[in-house]
Amino acid sequence: MTRYWLMKSEPSCFSIDDLHNAPNQTSPWDGVRNYQARNFMQKDMKLGDKIFFYHSNCKPPGIIGIAEVASGAYPDHTAFDPESDHPDPKSTPDNPRWFMVDVRYVEQFPKIIPLDELKLHTELASMPLLRKGNRLSVMPVGETEWQYIVKELVG
DNA sequence: GCCAACGTTGGC
DNA sequence: GCCAACGTTGGC
Question: Any residues with CB less than 8 A from the CB of A77 and at least 6 apart, and which?
Fold first, then answer.
């Protein structure tokens, strides 16, 4: 059964354009250093699951398009590299702490669906994304909410 | 195992 | 740049 997800990225760091331009339109989703987010990737994501690509820390923040899970989880080797953006000396090749999946570009929306707009729809109120203080960078999206967004808000 | 200090996220 | 919310760390 296909599941649905939302993954956040700062476009100044890695945008949906970057994913679109990547080889095979596919890229590792590296840099996640949060256990809950890691567990979603490691235990619950399946090949072909659909992902809302969310641009954070920009104007405006919001959902910009769709990607899909393109691999199973495997160790995030950037954690081993002291020169990387998010090194973690406690993660080693023999005992990796952080995992990632590959994601593949599916589509970019004609325009971003801003966070402000998502907040206006009571149908979406149960989304973890809209919970106050939420900081998860990888989170599940209910099928109901997914369909609502795709049918009512895209375009 | 508690909890204060600290760091990070991310909207504003 | 500010700050609220939250996760992590480490002393005890």
Answer: A30, A93
What is the Cα–Cα distance from A95 to A4, expressed in whole angstroms?
29
Element (H, E) at A107: strand A102-114
Q: Which residue is nearest to nucleotide B11 (CA to C1')?
A: A57
**Proximity of residue A35 CB to strand C below 7 A:** yes
Give me the CA A106–C1' B4 separation in Å, rounded. 46
Shortest CA to C1' contact from A135: nucleotide: B9
The pLDDT tens digits for A126-145 are 999 999 888 999 999 999 99
pTM over 0.85: yes
